[in-house]
Amino acid sequence: MTDVKSGPAPSAPDIPTGRSRRVRGRPQLYTSYAQDMALLDTPAKRVSTGLLVVLALALSVVLADRSLEVLAGAYVLAIGAIGLNIVTGYAGQVSLGHAFFVAIGAYTAAALSGPPGGDVIGFGVAEIWIWLPAAGLVAAVAGVLVAPLATRLRGLYLAIVTLGLVFLGEHVFKEWKALTGGPGVGREAAVPQLFGYRLDEDGPLGTREQVLYLLMLVLLVVFAVAARNLARSRVGRAFAAIRDRDIAAAVMGVPLTRFKVLAFGISSCYAGCAGALLYSVSGYVEPGSFNLLLSVQFIAMVLIGGVATVSGAIAGALFISLLQPLTRALPSLLPVVSADTTQTPNVFQVETVLYGLLIVLFLVFEPRGLFGLWVRARNYWKSWPFSY
Amino acid sequence: MKALLETLIRGLGNGSVYALLALGFVIIYKATRVISFAQPALMLAGAVAVSHLAEVTGFYTAVLLAGLLIAGVALAVERIAIRPMVGRPVFVVAIITLGVDIVVRVVVNAFIGRDVRQVGDPWGFDQVALGPLVVQQRWLAMLAVTAVLVGLLFAFFRYTRYGLAMRAAAFDQETALAQGVSVGMVFALSWGLAGFLAAVAGMFVGTGQGIEQGTWVIALKALPAIIVGGLDSLGGAVAGGLVVGVVESLFQSYQGEYAPWLGQNFAVVTPYVVMLVVLLVRPYGLFGTREVERV
To answer: Could you write out the DSSP letters of every residue in B44-91?
Structure first.
């Protein structure tokens, strides 16, 4: 008997289940399990989340198109980071192969939406509601195919095997010129089109960047809520049990193989969707971009943002994506740093060093990442002016 | 037949470089249970140090100095970034080494510049006749130096106090600590040794074709080597390195002829294919310790 019992548990008569009344003025008092597990369990969270979403929507009107494009890219990366967080953060399976699944999603979408009869494979299906799920699905299948290898391995063996996957994938994508156009040439990425309306062109809804920004924002919210729901479900608890001690989880009746495969599948699905969307912002895919650095960037997002938190993954993705434009602005502030790549120190070196240093510093001083910093700040102000 | 033998010697030569790198990985793994992703940066740093020092002191002194210098760098990395993390999950420490790798590489790249740098080795692409075979001198040099270093290393582990201490700490850290072994010293020593080996390997990688900013990727081929050999086996690291080198060399020579559909430069990724195949059969590598667990 390795199966976990599903379905509603028999409830004790004393403990009310389901939705029940909240006690006024006692936000921390839960009178039912459903309240305890609610997505937004306190009024403060409900208000702040609502404000954040309104702010994000408002940004589409306020910000310049250039900034909106950066933010749209950041939102897509956040979807990918949430995906990596599912397998690495929640289920504890270290994967350096995220870039591989991102690539699979990007090329599935690009091949589906590309014009038929061109230099590269194309099927002419530009509707986003077709190619986005397809990209996720193909990547998920790839993840499930890789997973049997992964379930035999633990810890660092797994990290190295997934690292090998990135190199193998890079080789395949560079050689399969009919699909990818080959290194240095590349191909057009997926075209986002919704019921015949091109989302990547200026139109009645706004400029190209505004429309793309809103699209990515909506998708990010959808994917983030889905991940949160997954994490607080039976599956999420099984993942956490595997992460914390896989043998103990198996003893308690969690089928390890099934849930590890599931974690890889879901994570790859997120990666595939992120890959499909990421390159529809820039409109162009090059096979050399799916390298180890991309995987490391996703790891950095998860670690800097906060392991096993959805909001952390989003914060980490925003942080890493904004690092680039911020370092580009450095030469005007610090004349020592040059914008010219032939000189040292230049902005690219500063940016790369910052990646590395931030990973090290966060892991040493705040392992919970940006999310941990937020928790510290929140707890400080919660009891202010008392120390605890 | 002649071409095959020459291919094998090239493979053994390159493989012995992978073996040196793999030994570094395994030594660190055995002491600290962590795979150091900083080795590629240390290898590149070693090669760059040799190329700069060789202009001043001559090649052979430069190799020795560079080895000591990189050992020092590795010691510093261990002391600053790794030692405070003792007792934390290995994954966290491995990612820290990944961060260290990125930082060190940026610094080293500044010393390389845009172009290819020569390491000033006396071999270059010169060839030597070995009976009927014509092989490059550098492959023989790689093989010979690796053989000597591996011999010294195994003697060190077998016959010296410090080697015994390292074996004891690798076997059981707490018991070793209770017997008076300074585990901190073992950590430092293993990082220092790995740094020295990485520097020598980097020098060999730079022979002939020179070094550029992308050379660090070669060090990652030692990862399949240690997986093939088994993460915690020194002999396995050497064997894994040689296997990876020979397979890669065979594919370099014959894949274009017999399996062109695999694409150009397939040889570059063969180490990872070998790794996947071995893992499918033996999840703990050829010589690795099998983790026994019961549920």
So the answer is: HHHHHHHHHHHHHH-HHHHHHHHHHHHHHHHHHHIIIIIGGGTTS-HH
